[in-house]
Amino acid sequence: MEIPAGYGVVLATAANVQEAQAIANALVEAKLAACVSLLPIHSIYTWQGKIHTEDEWQLLIKADLAQFSTLEAKIRELHSYELSEIIALPIIAGSQPYLQWIAEQIKGDS
């Protein structure tokens, strides 16, 4: 098994499905993401000293982490939250054909 160089899953949440879709489309069109999966979630968190519970949309963004700063800037540009979740998890192993597909979707813009 080959360790992928620089690929990861970036997690971000959005307030509603329309915002999640707009962010996902922009990232894929800009070749900052090979794929973005959208999942409805229920979040419980502390914000400004209060506990909040919200229905949100989780974006699972498959990307080249070498482009993280550009990807983060694009998400922040389109996002409605004052402080948005944007965190990256490295892919430490993966199906070689899938990793090759990621590379083909985002090549040329790193």
UniProtKB/TrEMBL annotation:
Coiled coil: none
Any Pfam family the entry gives: CutA1
Family annotation (Gene3D superfamilies): 3.30.70.120
Transmembrane regions listed in the UniProt entry: none
Superkingdom to which the source organism belongs: Bacteria
UniProt xrefs under InterPro entries: Ion_tolerance_CutA, N-reg_PII-like_a/b, N-reg_PII/ATP_PRibTrfase_C
Cited SUPFAM superfamilies: GlnB-like
PANTHER family (alphabetical): DIVALENT CATION TOLERANCE CUTA-RELATED (PTHR23419), FI09726P (PTHR23419:SF8)
Family membership: Belongs to the CutA family.
This protein's name: Divalent-cation tolerance protein CutA
Organism of derivation: Calothrix parietina FACHB-288
Lineage: Bacteria, Bacillati, Cyanobacteriota, Cyanophyceae, Nostocales
